[in-house]
UniProtKB/TrEMBL annotation:
GO biological process: DNA integration; DNA transposition
Record localization: Nucleus
UniProt GO MF annotations: DNA binding
Record's GO cellular component terms: nucleus
Residue ranges occupied by any Tc1-like transposase DDE domain in the UniProt entry: 120-263
Region of interest (Disordered), residue spans: 1-37
Predominant cellular place of this UniProt entry's protein: nucleus
Protein name: Transposable element Tcb2 transposase
Length: 278
């Protein structure tokens, strides 16, 4: 009996003694579709062009090396080095002036201690829709079941209506959410419905060092509001434009939005949404 025939009848333990391993020997199995250099080429292309999909990468690889592989092979090579498709984070477009103003603001407040920040009341308004952005929610489903009605979330144009809420936070406390009903927020409504009944009592609790942080939207910067601040002795923190990400209350809105979007059963009317938000 030949040596090859003898090896084919060996047990795993016997094969280990003969060749040093019970598994397949190097060189056996299907030939790899790409070379290490081609793998590095794919990774390099993705590093340089993050928006390029697997089909375009497949075409570029064929054009550059003459090697034709499937799009799944392209994905597998990228997965092997830890690269996966992800939704990009969305941010506000900033000009050089915006960047300069943000840097100056950060430099001015970099040495503030907790005692200074505890006097700041961060406030903002946010809108929640009856039919929120479903991109917040992920679902588990089988491959090939994308069009199954059980896994499809219906959307409604303009969100199907929503509610605008006001809230404020500080290190040692927060306000209740206030629902702004019956129309948009104007400077007069901002003064009469938010500043006078909510912010002024909150400022009295914090004390004489109270500082209000509100953004630069038009109702907040109206002359009527400025006059009210002068009358009440409220100090406002200077805030750079296009900087919602610097306001910590934005994290509160994100958390609340996820809770509203993930509520089961989800709110179907404005009344249910208002009850959920509160």
């Amino acid at each position: 009996m030949s040596t090859m025939s003898q090896r084919s009848h060996l047990t795993d333990s016997e094969a280990w003694r003969v060749v040093g391993s019970a598994g397949p020997r190097p060189g056996q199995g299907r030939r790899r579709a790409t070379t290490p250099n081609e793998d590095r080429y794919l990774v390099l292309m993705v590093r340089r062009h993050q928006n390029m999909n697997a089909t375009l990468l497949q075409q570029h690889l064929r054009s550059a090396t003459g090697t034709t592989v499937s799009t799944q092979t392209v994905r597998n090579r990228l997965h092997a080095v830890g690269l996966y498709p992800r939704r990009p984070m969305v941010c506000v477009r900033l000009t050089s002036r915006h960047c300069r103003d943000r840097r100056e603001w950060a430099t001015e407040h970099v040495n503030w201690r907790k005692i200074e920040w505890s006097n700041v009341h961060f406030s903002d308004e946010s809108r929640f829709s009856v039919h929120p952005d479903k991109r917040r929610i992920f679902i588990w489903r089988d491959r090939g079941s994308r069009n199954n009605p059980a896994f499809v979330h219906e959307s409604v144009r303009f969100g199907g209506g929503g509610v605008l809420v006001y809230g404020g936070i500080s290190i040692d406390g927060r306000t209740d959410l206030y629902i702004i009903r019956d129309g948009p927020l104007t400077a007069r409504r901002y003064r009469n419905e938010i500043l006078r009944p909510i912010v002024v009592p909150y400022a009295a609790v914090i004390g004489d060092d109270f500082i209000l942080m509100d953004d630069n939207c038009r109702p907040h910067r109206a002359n009527l509001v400025e006059d009210f601040f002068s009358e009440e002795g409220i100090v406002r923190m200077e805030w750079t434009t296009c900087s919602p990400d610097m306001n910590p209350i934005e994290y509160v809105w994100v958390s609340l939005g996820k809770q509203v979007a993930g509520r089961q059963p989800p709110p179907q009317t404005l009344q249910e949404l208002q009850a959920t938000s509160c």
